[in-house]
Every structure is written in structure tokens, then in C-alpha cells.
Write a structure and sequence with these properties.
8-stranded mixed beta sheet; Aspartate Aminotransferase, domain 2; binds pyridoxal-5'-phosphate; 4-stranded antiparallel beta sheet; alpha/beta; 14 helices; about 45% helix
């Protein structure tokens, strides 16, 4: 161990997905591994127009240092949208623009977590959250999720033995599993947490990408004083701008602003100005509708291809939105073994174990359907089905 590095960085594993993506760079490999939005849907022309408008109308102001809270116009847009879409009244003072929602996770870690502090996290859970909180050397309390949401008995079981400060959730179209918490499950989670001293993080980068089913209550409605919301423009506009936001109560926002200043003073001013001009000029909802149409088509194509090519005892979640499907293999067959065979068959996915705390092997895996067109999905699923049948025949 190099004495020069801090424990907080030496103890955090590299992103497993990044490592896996290196294996999948071979041009012939069809990759369902990454979590990339589809670049064919990026509004390049509209953003170019918005950028030129910003140069023409704002000039140097768009290139100057700015405030840590973020561009007021953008925060107003977010506030209005919460009201319009879910009837949530969120004053602009409670919104801070962050460098992606990933920075929101880091700032929450910085603000709340001392070494050894307990955090409840969904299992399987978002790798970026595991990584962000690991830097602050928190102790994870994984709580299993099922197709209807969090395992309520397991959640109750955390108390009173542990005293978690934070609980991390992705209730809509979860990464990695694609599942959503049902309305009943959300209410049950809220009931368990109602009298506990902790904050619930509702990370919602996929909420706008619903293809079927009805929208559900936000935890902000069920536990208004305890909920911290994270949002993102990565999946609805472009990830490269790195623009997201945090919604937090006044006293927390005060601390988050200090954490933000210590990290980077403020989020990229030019990107905020361009995004804001784009949102003002264009029709955001029409753009989102277009994304939903394409992703839903690809989601359906993937499910249909799996029906055709996968053995019947392989279980797949059928998400109502988002970008991922979650596969469970029969008889505890290792998805890492399948991965090796899949790469030989020129198809890639993410094996499930990095999404769990402290597991090195599972029978689960994640498939992304946003970044590959329907025809390629069919070829990829045929290859993966072949690898699966070969593995099952030999086990
Ligand atoms: C659940 C979840 N949270 C946060 C992020 C990070 O998104 P952003 O680009 O806004 O930092 C992702 C990205 O894949 C995600 O899946």
C-alpha cells in the first residue's frame, strides 16, 4: 500500500463498469453494458443554436464566475416543472444546480457522513452511489429490493440495532434492476421511516422516462421534511453538460452550499446558460416524448427477443421506464461465467455482483436497452441466448 494515498481513496474500488467497458471496445462486440443515453437523440442542432444565442445575448456574463446555487432561470424552470408534473411546491431557494446528480451524491456524503456512519442502500444498488459514499468511509446497510420495491421487513430489521443517517433510494426505474416501487411500497417505506431521525435520498434521473403505468407519489410528498431529491438533465437532454440538481430543506441547503463551494465554487456557468436557453426556446416535453418513443420501442424489442432466444427458466424484470432490464439466471448460475462466454460470442453486459455490497458472484446481470437499436438488440439477444444455452447445458 502506497503510504502517500489517503485511506478514503485507497479503499474505494475502481468502477467495475469502466473496467468491463474496456473489454467491450472490440467493434464486433454488441454491448448492453454501459448506461449511456442514445446519442442519436441528443438535440445537437438546438443546443448549437442555444449556444450562439448565449454568446450573442449574454457575452462575457455567460463566462464569468457565478453563484454557488446555480442559474436562477434554470432553478425556476425546475421549480415550475415540479409543480406542473407532480404538484410539488419547491421554492427556488431549495434547489441547487450540481455538476450532474453524481455530484449531489458526493455533496451529501461530504455533508452528512463521518467515518463508520450507517447508510441504508437498496440492494442491488446504483454503483455510483456506493462509490460516492465509500469515499466517506460509511458503513452500508443493504436492504433488498424486489419487483414491488423495498423489502419492508428487511428495512424494519435495520432498526434499532443501527442508527443510519441516510437511506438511498431510486424508486423510479431503478439502476440497475429497472424495477419501480409500487405506491403501497412507498407508503410502507414512509411509515417505517416516519419517526426515525434520518434523511431519505430520492435519486430520480429516470423519472421522466415512463413508458407504461401510472406515475407514483414522490417521497417528497410522503416524507416532505426528510426527503432530499436528486434530479438530472443527463437522460433528458445530454449527459456531457453534467447538469443536475438537489432539492433540500433550508438547513441542509445551507450546509450543501458550503460543501459545493469547497468542491468547485459553482457548476459550469456556460453550460447552465446554454441549457436554460434551450429549455426556453424548445419544447422540452416534445423532446422527451421522442426519447420515450425510441426507448420504449427498444425495450419491447429486447423483451420480445429474449422470449425468442432465452431458456424459459431465465427471469427478466419488465420495467415501466428507464434504461435497464435485470436478468436472474436459474440455479445460481454465475453471471461472471456467462460474461466470459458472452464475450466469446461478441456480446457484453454487466454481471450483477458489483451492485451488491461485498459479493463476488451472483446469478444476476444488467442489460441496457437505450443505446442499441432494435435490429442490433435482436442479434445481441440471439448471441446471449446461445451463450446461455451453452452454459446451462454444461452446468
Ligand atoms: C441512479 C443514478 N443516479 C445518478 C446517476 C448520475 O447521473 P448524472 O449524469 O446526473 O451525474 C446515474 C447515472 O447513470 C444513475 O443511474
Amino acid at each position: 500500500m502506497n503510504r502517500m494515498f489517503a485511506d478514503r481513496i485507497s479503499d474505494v474500488p475502481k468502477s467495475f463498469i469502466r473496467e468491463i467497458l474496456k473489454v467491450a471496445v472490440d467493434e464486433e462486440v454488441i454491448s448492453f453494458a454501459g448506461g449511456l443515453p442514445n446519442r442519436a437523440l441528443f438535440p445537437v442542432k438546438e443546443l448549437k443554436q442555444a449556444a450562439s444565442q448565449v454568446f450573442d445575448n449574454m457575452g462575457p456574463e455567460a463566462l464569468q464566475y457565478s453563484n454557488s446555487e446555480g442559474l436562477l432561470k434554470l432553478r425556476k424552470f425546475i421549480s415550475n416543472r415540479y409543480m406542473e408534473k407532480s404538484g410539488l411546491s419547491i421554492p427556488v431557494e431549495n434547489i441547487m444546480i450540481t455538476s450532474g446528480s453524481q455530484q449531489g451524491l458526493d455533496l451529501l456524503g461530504k455533508t452528512f457522513l463521518n467515518e463508520g456512519d450507517d447508510v441504508i442502500i437498496e440492494e442491488p444498488g446504483y454503483l455510483g452511489a456506493i462509490q460516492a459514499f465509500s469515499v466517506y468511509k460509511s458503513r452500508f446497510n443493504p436492504v433488498k429490493i424486489h419487483e414491488d420495491g423495498m423489502d419492508i421487513e428487511a428495512l424494519k430489521h435495520v432498526f434499532p440495532g443501527r442508527n443510519p443517517k441516510l437511506i438511498y433510494t431510486v424508486p423510479n426505474f431503478q439502476n440497475p434492476s429497472g424495477i419501480s416501487y409500487t405506491e403501497e411500497n412507498r407508503r410502507a417505506v414512509a411509515e417505517v421511516l416516519e419517526n426515525k431521525e434520518l434523511y431519505l435520498i430520492e435519486d430520480d434521473p429516470y423519472g421522466d422516462l415512463r413508458y407504461t403505468g401510472e406515475p407514483k407519489s414522490s417521497f417528497k410528498q410522503l416524507l416532505p421534511d426528510k426527503t432530499i431529491l436528486l434530479g438530472s438533465f443527463s437522460k433528458t437532454v445530454v449527459p456531457g453538460f453534467r447538469l443536475g440538481w438537489i432539492v433540500a430543506p433550508d438547513d441542509i441547503m445551507e450546509k450543501l452550499l458550503i460543501a459545493k463551494q469547497a468542491s468547485d465554487l459553482h457548476t459550469n456557468q456556460f453550460a447552465q446558460c446554454v441549457l436554460s436557453a434551450y429549455l426556453e426556446a424548445g419544447d422540452f416535453d416534445v423532446h422527451i416524448a421522442q426519447i420515450k418513443k425510441v426507448y420504449n420501442h427498444q425495450r419491447e424489442a429486447m423483451i420480445a427477443s429474449m422470449d425468442r432466444h432465452f431458456p424459459k427458466d431465465v427471469h427478466v424484470t419488465k420495467p415501466e421506464g428507464g434504461m435497464f432490464l435485470w436478468v436472474s439466471l436459474p440455479n445460481q448460475i454465475s453471471s461472471m461465467k456467462l460474461f466470459d462466454l458472452a464475450i466469446k460470442n461478441k456480446v457484453a453486459f454487466v454481471p450483477g455482483h458489483p451492485f451488491y455490497i461485498g459479493l463476488t458472484e451472483t446469478n444476476t446481470l444488467r442489460l441496457n436497452f437505450s443505446n442499441v437499436d432494435a435490429d442490433t438488440i435482436e442479434i445481441g439477444m440471439e448471441r446471449l441466448g446461445r451463450a446461455l444455452k451453452e452454459l446451462l447445458a454444461n452446468s
